[in-house]
Amino acid sequence: MIAYQIVRFLIWLVAKLLWRISFEGLDKVPKTGPFVLAPVHRSFIDFGLVSAVTRRQFGFMGKESLWRNKLLGAFITHLGAYPVNRGAPDRESLRRTLGLLENGTPLVLFPEGTRRSGPVIEHLHEGAAYVASRAGVPIVPVGIGGSERALPKGKALPRPVRIHVVVGEPLVPVPVAEGARHPSRRAVKELTVRLQGVLQDLFDSAQRTAGVEVPVNQTPRSDV
């Protein structure tokens, strides 16, 4: 816990000095209990940026390849990360994810699955909605503006641009039917559609504040 807080502070300090990071809606992050934090994903630094929205320690699901480097794997494991195999169903990862939520630990799950590029939030995976629905916990959506300009995919050196983070209202999933072990396919899909629209709105807002031009008539929207 102490190591996590030290690393979290160092990340916040770098983000403040290099990217003049600012936050909006931090009061919407639950102070107790488990939840799924669902940020947009445009840069490798997004993992670190979202750790600054609360002092609470998160669990992070990371791609399996990160553990090929033993030193990096040991470091991120110590900070709460655990691997997932993206190419196939990973029952062990799902079991661990649900176990952490049951124990009250909030998790960071990127609903886009991997880093994307551009102004539109699309093709969300249903994992975040499924996990939140099955565990009966809220999804807290997060828009991150400017991170793609700060460190684009494929680049090694960061740029000193502005970053703004917007936390949205928690989305509460429909309760799993009595006697059922899993949420209905329809409920998961509808929650994913809601999340997609809300993330687009938050992303647009964060981008504007960060000084990034946002196309007019962006789709999809949260009111669709």
- Tally the structural domains: 1
CATH classification, class level: Alpha Beta
Oligomer: single chain
Cα distance spanning the termini: 41 Å
Number of strands: 7
Order of helices and strands: HEEHEHEHEHEHEH
CATH-wise, what's the superfamily?
Answer: Glycerol-3-phosphate (1)-acyltransferase
Percentage of residues in strands: 5-15%
Count of discrete alpha- or pi-helical segments spanning 4 or more residues: 7
Q: Rounded to an integer, what's the Rg over CA atoms?
A: 17 Å
What is the general shape? globular
The CATH topology is Glycerol-3-phosphate (1)-acyltransferase
Can you give the mean pLDDT?
A: 91
Poorly predicted runs are none
Share of helix, binned: 25-40%
Shape-level CATH architecture = 3-Layer(aba) Sandwich
Q: What characterizes the major β-sheet? A: 7 strands, mixed
Description of the molecule:
- The mean pLDDT is 91.
- The relative contact order is 0.19.
- The chain is of the alpha/beta class and 224 residues long.
- Helices cover 37% and strands 13% of the residues.
- The longest helix has 25 residues, at 185-209.
- Strands 1-7-6-2-5-3-4 form a 7-stranded mixed β-sheet.
- Helix 5 (127-135) crosses helix 7.
- The protein has a single domain, classed as Glycerol-3-phosphate (1)-acyltransferase (3-Layer(aba) Sandwich), CATH 3.40.1130.10.
- The radius of gyration is 17 Å and the shape is globular.
